[in-house]
């Protein structure tokens, strides 16, 4: 009997072939099992997928416990989110990390100075963002662990050099190279694990002719992502870059809360996803609060001071919410 595999199954199977991490493999296998037509002709295939799932789960279980199987280049996430820098050599990735964090990457005029990923914490207002410096992403230098790191990240920061006359070619080359390696940029709507949000840091805006090249860059890639002109050297645009990383690339907001009758501590925000409702926020902050929530009051955007709001009220950056249980 022919298997008659549908497009959903075939797509999941393709994702399985392209998966790099165990989590990606498992997600794809489970989707294959869910979408495979259930009849006699596919019984062997179903059994085979089930076998692969349990083998992988066992590997992941053992790997987590044992000290030897740790993934070599997994970068432990910290702060509001993990942003990985991607770009051609010499665009100023290491210099940006040095300017924006306390990390001490090597910055040099000659290319290929950076050989390993280096994370640093960027303090912006009252939040921290993890920014990771990487070796350049070119066909000559890319290695499989680099793709894995990009896929596991929360967002990509594409760094280009506004002082470089070849900036357009280099930008297009990088995007093409990423697509050829199954990493697409997608800033709107739901994403699969081969699609990532991206923001562009158009670095070295202090150099002559930078703003003319910026206009050209906007024409070529501006429809696909936001572009922030900045300079690792003069710090121009760095604060806007951080704000866009937090609100747009990571899609986060800051919410403050305090027990009824007390004052809010504005140095201690709760970092939540954009679109979070009052009840979701309560769940993130304390399960017990969520379970017993009677009502909430909000001081902030789109409400009058201390307005009583329903559980599905959507919170905004800077809102203070007080839960009553
Ligand atoms: N004028 C200027 N030079 C920069 C800027 N950022 C980086 N550079 C210089 O560009 C060169 C390459 O920088 P680096 O951070 O090592 O590039 P990477 O290969 O992308 O990590 C170094 O000589 C830096 O000093 C900038 O904003 N303005
Ligand atoms: Mg570098």
From TrEMBL:
Top-level taxonomy: Bacteria, Bacillati, Bacillota, Candidatus Fermentithermobacillia, Candidatus Fermentithermobacillales
Pfam families given for it? MMR_HSR1 (PF01926), TGS (PF02824)
Recorded hits in SUPFAM superfamilies, A to Z, give: P-loop containing nucleoside triphosphate hydrolases, TGS-like
Can you name this protein? TGS domain-containing protein
Name one molecular function that GO assigns to this entry: GTP binding
Q: Which residues form the TGS domain?
A: 251-325
**PANTHER family documented for this protein:** DEVELOPMENTALLY-REGULATED GTP-BINDING PROTEIN 2
């Amino acid at each position: 009997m022919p298997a008659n595999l549908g497009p959903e199954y075939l797509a999941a199977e393709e994702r399985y072939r392209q998966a790099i991490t165990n989590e990606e493999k498992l997600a794809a296998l489970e989707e294959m099992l869910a979408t495979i037509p259930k009849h006699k002709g596919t019984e062997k295939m179903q059994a085979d997928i089930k076998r692969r799932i349990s083998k992988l789960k066992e590997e992941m279980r053992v790997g987590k416990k044992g000290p030897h199987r740790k993934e070599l280049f997994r970068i432990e996430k910290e702060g509001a989110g993990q942003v990985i820098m991607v770009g051609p050599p010499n665009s100023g990735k290491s210099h940006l990390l040095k300017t924006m964090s306390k990390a001490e990457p090597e910055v040099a005029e000659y290319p290929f100075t950076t050989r390993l990923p280096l994370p640093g914490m960027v303090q912006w207002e009252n939040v921290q963002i993890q920014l990771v410096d990487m070796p350049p992403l070119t066909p000559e230098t890319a290695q499989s662990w680099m793709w894995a790191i990009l896929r596991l990240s929360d967002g990509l920061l594409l760094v280009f050099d506004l002082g470089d006359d070849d900036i357009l070619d280099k930008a297009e080359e990088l995007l093409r190279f990423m697509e050829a390696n199954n990493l697409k940029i997608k800033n709107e709507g739901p994403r699969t694990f081969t699609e990532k949000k991206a923001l562009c840091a158009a670095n070295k805006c202090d150099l002559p002719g930078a703003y003319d090249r910026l206009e050209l860059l906007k024409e070529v890639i501006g429809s696909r992502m936001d572009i922030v002109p900045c300079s690792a050297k003069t710090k121009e645009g760095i604060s806007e870059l951080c704000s866009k990383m937090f609100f747009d690339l990571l899609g986060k907001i800051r919410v403050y809360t305090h027990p009824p009758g007390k004052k809010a501590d504005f140095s201690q925000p709760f970092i939540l996803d954009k679109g979070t409702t009052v009840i979701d926020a309560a769940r993130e902050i304390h399960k017990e609060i969520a379970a017993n929530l009677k009502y909430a009051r909000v001081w902030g955007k789109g409400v009058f001071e201390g307005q009583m709001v329903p559980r599905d009220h959507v919170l905004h950056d800077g809102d203070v919410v007080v839960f009553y249980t």
